[in-house]
Amino acid sequence: MFKYILKSKFSFCFAVLFAVAASFGTVYFAFLLGNIIQVAVDGKLSALYAEGIKAAIIMTLTGALNFITSVLYNNYLTNSIRHVRSDFFNSIMNSRISFFIERNSNEYISMFLTDMSLVETNYFGSVFLILSNICLFLFGIASIFYLNWIIAITVLVTALVPMVVPGILSGLLRKAGKDYSSALEKFTVYVKDYLSGFEVIKGFNIVKKVYANFLLQNKIITKKKRAKDNSTSAVQNISSTLGGLLFFVPLLLGAYLSLNGKFYIGGVITAVQLVNHILSPIQGIVKGFAELNTVRAVSAKILDVLKTNKPSDTDCVEKFDFTDSIKFTDVNFSFKTNENDLSGNSIERQVLKNLNFEINTGEKVLLVGKTGSGKSTVLKLLLKYFKNYSGSITIDGKNLCDIKAESLYSKFGMIHQNVFLFDDTIENNIRLGLNFQDTEIDKAIKHSGLLPLIEKNPDGKKFKVGENGSKLSGGEKQRLAIARCLLLNLPVLILDEITSSLDAETAQEIEKQILSLQDKTVIAVSHRLNKNLLAQYNKIIVLQDGRVCECGTFDELIRLKKIFYSLYTLEAVERIQ
Question: Which PROSITE patterns does this chain map to (predicted)?
């Protein structure tokens, strides 16, 4: 995190300098206060006026310096966390999909909304607090030495007590901060799930059950927050109590020295005032280190994302052309399950086993098979979701591992079963912030079948689709996703069960429209086996237990009367029923 302080080093350094300058003003004011008391004791009225004018000037200048310090401090604080947020978001967006899906999206939201706030206050704020207070402490010690070295040494020795004792409790603070962060993360996940599932909760009449669960989670997060706050308060109060000794010691010692003629009354007042410039920095330093301890686990979590989610294909091919074929050769892929063996190691499940097939450019290819046969996994490997497979996947003879993800996505577009839409207009959801002419947008709308939707809405393509497309039907969402791919002129369209949640008529219309696209390679996964559509595919690849068991056209596979024939006839029977 320290590198982000360096990005705002000028604001940070000047804020510290102005804080020290303001401290000089308050220290000088302490001497003036002592002088005022002394001239009053001595009965020097003219000197009293002069000291009073000096005090007024110093107070005004100190106030101005404190204001400038606050402005510079706020600038440093906001800029530092802005850089962290920017790098954090960029790291997530540039990470491999496999890294992203390892975490619940709510965890990222919690890091953005909660953890970043903690880092801003308890890390960046605390670093400034510690450094500026160290400077103030040294300045205060130097001033009290200038006043009287006996009092200074006594105060310095006494000051060690409130500095050392709270450090013993740092482990408690660290644990409390980590526990609170983890609990807050889980609480965020629960709340988002409940709000996202509002209709299900109401529809199944489980409001009371959900509310009871919410009360439990709310109780847990409150308990963790209370524990963290109590731990911090304990350290601060111990420090404050012990710091009270610093006021008593110079007062008693100064009075003793004055009685013996070795000091003066005004000096006693100045010494007591200067204790503030020793006690306050000590309390600030202790508080700063305490807050650093509470945020250590949170910072580590953010840094873990920043370090782990860096793109690993920076040395890969920047550009490539898909003009020949995609080839899977002896591909094997396994993933770890949530189950453990007797040794405590995660059990791996092999999804693909010596997978071999080839797809030529321009072909329309359908992957079919029972649930768990590996169809969607094939698509994810092709799109570089995962890299821990054996065998080879090549595009025009180039190894997929040697092709940069950004280059791949400039040729391959995936349309998912659940299309995500921004709460924006139809046009902006198609454009996705990219610079395209209106004529290109209109062309994509026409060829994707979105024109009827545009024409029936008074706002046309400026119609706002609502949160995640809540104002659109499932078919309209899929057509909008198709329009995105058409606008980008992607040569390869990858479809993962895009019609599974649609009615039969809409599903058939959309699939037919995609298959009619010229000069497009289509790789689709589907459970819907419609004869008229199946006949339009150049190749149907049948997967079973992670292997290719059949491959051919619809007519060829029907004549074989094997696996595909069974799948087709079973689906036909279910459709009739």
Answer: ABC_TM1F, ABC_TRANSPORTER_1, ABC_TRANSPORTER_2
The Cα–Cα gap between 368 and 366 comes to 6
Q: Is the dihedral of CA 139, 141, 144, 145 positive or negative?
A: negative
Question: What architecture is the 312-411+492-577 domain classified under in CATH?
Answer: 3-Layer(aba) Sandwich (3.40)
Residue 370: phi and psi, rounded to 5, are: -70, 165
Q: Could you please report the per-residue DSSP string of 246-289?
A: HHHHHHHHHHHHHHTTSS-HHHHHHHHHHHHHHHHHHHHHHHHH
Assigned CATH class of 419-490: alpha beta
Measured distance CA(213)–CA(196) in Å, rounded: 16
**For 2-308, CATH number?**
1.20.1560.10
**Quick check: 91 pLDDT over 70?**
yes
Q: % helix / strand / coil in the chain, to the nearest 5?
A: 65, 15, 20
Instruction: Determine which helix (DSSP H) or strand (DSSP E) holds 67, and give its type and residue range.
Output: helix 45-93
**Burial label, 371 (beta-carbon count in 10 A; 0-12, 13-18, 19+):** exposed
397, two tokens? 């003879």
Higher per-residue pLDDT: 389 or 158: 389
Evaluate whether 2-308 and 419-490 have a shared fold.
no
Query: Could you give the dihedral angle defined by the CA atoms of residues 35, 38, 42 and 44, in that order, rounded to the nearest 10 degrees?
Result: 30
Q: What is the pLDDT of residue 360?
A: 93
Strand-pairing partners, residue 550, are 542
* Structural tokens at position 516: 């009619």
Lowest-confidence range among 274-283, 402-411, 460-469, 553-562? 274-283
Give which of 89, 137, 133, 120 is closest to 8, Cα–Cα: 120
Mean of the pLDDT values across residues 43-63?
A: 81
pLDDT bin (cut points 50, 70, 90) of residue 577 is: very low
* Dihedral pair phi/psi, residue 206, rounded to 5°: -115, 25
Radius of gyration for the alpha carbons in the chain, expressed in angstroms and rounded: 35
Instruction: Give the start-to-end residue ranges of the domains of the chain.
Output: 2-308, 312-411+492-577, 419-490
Q: Are 38 and 266 in contact (CB under 8 A)?
A: yes
β-partners of residue 333 are 352, 389
Q: How far apart are the first and last CA of the chain?
A: 62
Decide if 542 contacts 564 (C-beta within 8 A). yes
User: What pTM was estimated for this model as a whole?
Assistant: 0.67
